[in-house]
From TrEMBL:
Pfam families: HTH_3. The keyword DNA-binding applies. Keywords: DNA-binding. PROSITE patterns: HTH_CROC1. This is XRE family transcriptional regulator. InterPro entries: Cro/C1-type_HTH (IPR001387), Lambda_DNA-bd_dom_sf (IPR010982), RmlC-like_jellyroll (IPR014710), RmlC_Cupin_sf (IPR011051), TransReg_Diox_bact_type (IPR050807). Residues 12-66 form the HTH cro/C1-type domain. Coiled coil: none annotated. It comes from Microbacterium paludicola.
Length: 182
């Protein structure tokens, strides 16, 4: 699998230019430094999940657009080869497994998390629903004001356009997360 940095650099520059934004304006809208945007467009730095979400929101594109690997052949992602994007605020990383193809609106992620600071998410685009299937460990997931404890095999769907949380309650917690925009 291609390293994320060149993929993010290529996509970020393409989306910024398509939106007609300068590096400075994108940085302002995303609430991050101009230097960070420049570094990312040059394939340097290791962006957090929060940084990529902020850039996606500022550009009006889903997170998946910034990290998706376009492929015409079958895509195999071995568990040992995950190149996830880490969170800056929690022991949490997200690996995009499948981005939504044109005309459809769903992205599939594999989540790995450990106990510690929960991964708190701001609301995504209006009409977003998140689906979580817990694979291992235990986690409190869902609306930030009323998360639900999940065990392996449990499925939960909740509104992703309101503040929500993913908190690992056991080491080695993993889940499949599907983000769907209606």
């Amino acid at each position: 699998m291609e390293d994320l940095r060149p993929r993010i650099a290529r996509t970020l520059r393409r989306e910024r230019e398509a939106a007609g934004l300068s590096v400075s304006e994108l940085a302002r809208r995303a609430g991050i430094s101009k230097a960070t945007v420049s570094q990312l467009e040059n394939g340097a730095g290791n962006p957090s999940v929060e940084t990529l979400w902020a850039l996606g929101v500022a550009l009006g594109v889903p997170f998946a657009v910034l990290v998706d690997q376009q492929a015409s052949a079958p895509t195999l992602i071995r568990a040992s080869d995950h190149s996830g994007v880490p969170s800056a605020a929690a022991a949490y990383s997200a690996t995009l497994l499948a981005a939504s193809p044109p005309g459809a609106r769903r992205d599939v992620y594999l989540i790995h998390a450990d106990p510690g600071e929960p991964r708190r998410s701001d609301p995504h685009h209006q009409g977003t629903t998140e689906h979580v299937i817990l694979v291992s460990g235990r986690a409190a997931v869902g609306p930030a004001d009323a998360p639900i404890e999940l065990e392996p095999g449990d499925y939960l769907a909740y509104a992703g356009d309101v503040p929500h949380v993913f908190e690992a309650l056991a080491p080695g917690t993993s889940a499949v997360l599907i983000s769907e925009l209606r």
